[in-house]
Amino acid sequence: MSTLVPGAQTGLRESLLTVADGDADLTALLRSYLAPVPEPDLVGIEPDALAGLARAHLDMGRIRRPGEHLVTTFTPTEWDSHGSLVALLVSDDQRFLVDTVTLELTRQEWSLRRLYHPQPRIRRDADGNLLGVGSGDVESWMALELYPPLGHSAEDLQPELESGLRTALATVTTTVADWQPMLARCREAVAELWADGSHRPAVSDGVDLLDWLAADHFVFLGYARYVPAGDGLVPVAGTGLGLLRGVSEIDRLNVPRPGEDDPVVLMRDLRRSPVYRRAYLTHLAVRLFGPDGTLRTEHRFLGLLGASAYTEAVASIPVLAAKSQRLLADCGFEPSSYGWNATRQVIATYPREELFEARVEELAPIVAAVAALRESRQTRVFLRRSRYGGFTTALVYLPRDRYNTTTRLALQRILLDELGGLELEYNTLVSESVLVRLVFVVRMGPDAPTHPDVDRIAMLAASATRSWGDDFTELAATLPSEQRGVEFGEVYEADHPPSVAMAHLHLANELTETDDLRVTIAEPPDPEDDPADLRLTVLSLRPMTLTEVMPHLSALGAQTVDERPYEWQLRDRRVLVYSFGLRLGEGEQWDAGTRSRFTAAFVASWTGRCEADQLNQLVVPAGLDWRQVSWLRALSRYLQQATLPFSQPYLATALTTYPRIAAALVKAFETKFDPAAFDAVDADAREAALAGLQQNLSEQLEQVASLDHDRILRAFWAVIRAGVRTNAFTDSATLALKLLPAELDLLPQPRPEFEVYVYSPRVHGVHLRFGSVARGGLRWSDRREDFRTEVLGLVKAQSVKNTVIVPAGAKGGFVPQSLPTGRAEQLAEGRACYRLFIEALLSVTDNIVDGAVVPPVGVVRYDGDDPYLVVAADKGTATFSDLANEVSVSRGFWLGDAFASGGTSGYDHKAMGITARGAWESVKHHFAELGLDPDTDPFTVVGIGDMAGDVFGNGMLLSRQLKLVAAFNHLHIFIDPDPKPAASFVERDRLFRLPGSTWADYDPALISAGGGVFRRDLKSVPISRPMQVALGLSESVTKLTPNELISAVLRAPVDLLFNGGVGTFVKGSAETHTSAGDKANDGVRVNGAELRARCVSEGGNLGFTQLGRVEYAENGGRINTDFIDNSAGVDTSDHEVNIKILLASELAAGRLTEPDRDMLLASMTDEVAGLVLAHNRDQNLALANAMFRRFDLAGQHEAWMTTLEQYGLDRRLEALPSTHELNARLAAGRALTSPEFSVLLSYTKIALYRWVLASDLPEDPYLADRLVQYFPQALRERYEAVMPQHRLAREIIATVAVNRFVDSQGITAYHRLSTETGAGVADIMRAQLASRSIFNAGLDEVRIRRLVGLSADVGTELRVVLLRMVERATRWLLNHRHGSLDITATVAEYGAEIAQLRPELLGLLSGRTAASSQAAEQRWLEAGLPEELARNLATAGHAHTLLNVVDVAHRLDCDLLRAAQVHYRVAEALGIELLSSGVDVLPRQVRWDAMARAALRDELLTAHTDLTAAVLTHADAETDAATAVQTWLDAHPGVAPRVAMIRQVSDGTPDVARMNVGLSQLRAMLGG
Question: Per the residue annotation, which of 323, 796, 801, 811 is the catalytic one?
Answer without folding.
Answer: 811
